Amino acid sequence: MGDNDELDDLPLPPLPPGISMPPPPPPPPLAESSIEDDEDHDDTEENVDTIDDSLSSDFKSQWESRKANDPTLSDSKDSMYGHIDRIATGEVGTLLDRFSDRFGSELDREIIVLRKKQQQEIRAVKPTVELISAPESDDEYEEEVSDAIGSSDEFSQFFDVVNNLLGDMPEDFIQRFLASDSFKLFESVGANPDAADEDTRAEFFSMINAELGELPEDKINKFVESPGFELFTKMGELYGG
Question: Is pTM, for the whole model, over 0.90?
Answer without folding.
Answer: no
